[in-house]
Amino acid sequence: xxxPAGIDGGAGDGGAGGAGGNRGAGDSAxxxxxxxxxxxxxxxxxxxxxxxxxxxTQTKLFCCCKNAFGDEPNTNVCPVCLGLPGSLxxxxxxxxxxAMRIGAALHCEVRPSSFHRKNYFYPDMPKDYQISQYDEPIxxxxxxxxxxxxxxxxxxxxxxxxxxxxxxxxESGRIHAADYALVDYNRAGVPLVEIVSEPDIRSxxxxxxxxxxxxxxxxxxxxxxxxxxxxxxxxxxxxxxRRAGTTAYGTRCEIKNLNSLRSLGRAIDYETARQxxxxxxxxxxxxxxxxxxxxxxxxxxLRSKEEAFDYRYFPEPDLVPLVPExxxxxxxxxxxxxxxxxxxxxxxxxxxGAPSAHQVDQVDxxxxxxxxxxxxxxxxxxxxxELALVRAANELAADLDAALALDPGSFAQLLTMEAQGALTxxxxxxxxxELIAAGGGDPAGIAAEKGFEALSxxxxxxxxxxxxxxxxxxxxxxxxxxxxxxxxFTGQVMRATGGKADGKAIAAELRRxxx
Length: 515
Ligand code: ADP
Ligand code: MG
Ligand code: ZN
Prior knowledge:
alpha+beta; Arc Repressor Mutant, subunit A; 3 domains; 15 strands; binds adenosine-5'-diphosphate; binds magnesium ion; binds zinc ion
């Protein structure tokens, strides 16, 4: 990570090393290393995340207005979500159901809960208060295990309503240089679950992995569409640093409203470096709420601890306590689909044995894209597991919507043909493209139509011999060790066979002749 410009400069303590004040700060590739400041001591980053997840309900949390992204502004509003006098909130049962599913997926305890009013003025919040859960949240205590083996504990996951949305009109798009502001209340009252982690995260890379996995879990439960670019998931990052090896937490800053993984990672890296520089220069970090300036690549202060809002929480008088009966809780927990970690394990189990690093990546991709059910079904119908996995990771992802509708039987049949040598990899991919476009079909028929027939071993050998004979000079150089000529011969054989030869088979034949 790179210390922020303007701070890095004279901020060092002039201690040992002194390699330009930026020594050792270059771990941005993974963000996993211990952070280093300009002095001799290593620092550790400590991060706790608050993730706001918009729930995929038909209607808002306390009224019957439509919950939809991208509609004409201020069309999905009513007296309740506009906070007009005399209107009364009615809790959306499905939002409660989704909150309980999230709780179950995160191993939380589901508890009797209640709602409070959180009072503050903001132009995009028509009621001047937000209904949220305060000291009695619906989900308490839990954890999320990441694919890297680390565990992040969950403090709570509570229900609350979203605010509206302000757009600042003007060249900058920001409030300062804006000519005027437009307010859209369609989002006001949309149900949210806020998931608060313990400060268990130790790097920007781990923070990204946590949000990636959490997003996959939220999608698997049916609670979220996971669309960060539409604001369905928004992250506040609490960041502090401490000397490596110490256990007390440092003073944290909270960075508001990060809406992409990239921003999240960059903001944490910037903030880590800023705090290290401050601590080395002055020994203190002020607790602050900060804003991430995407184009400037820096965080800027929003308000200090002294300026923090006093929200004057008090119990929402228009709502009764929420006490879901055990049977409803059990039903919600039971309708949580197979979670990503279980889906990954299922694929690894199909391959059998320890997966290679490559295969681990393929498993991640296939599960992240929801293609794992297809792979499992194809393998059940006889497809070789490793081949199904690699084709799903590399070929199906390109046209995901169509691929998700692919008939697993056709997919299995094609992969079996390829594995038996009836089709080359290239031919098989071409047939697969047709199957995807049509949602299925008869792979053998399509292969025949395309004139695909794999070359027999003996005719391939004959073609290779011919090509070698026609290019004696290149062959001599190949024999002398010029390995890159394998590509030349492969190309010649492909040309001579009209692309019907299998690259791997050519390579094997060349190796055989060279011996
Ligand atoms: P608040 O209610 O003021 O927002 P919390 O104690 O509930 O404060 O913490 C909010 C978030 O800040 C949690 O995700 C928590 O893990 C994180 N957090 C708390 N202390 C630290 C710290 N010293 N460094 C980093 N994150 C922290
Ligand atoms: Mg907070
Ligand atoms: Zn409404």
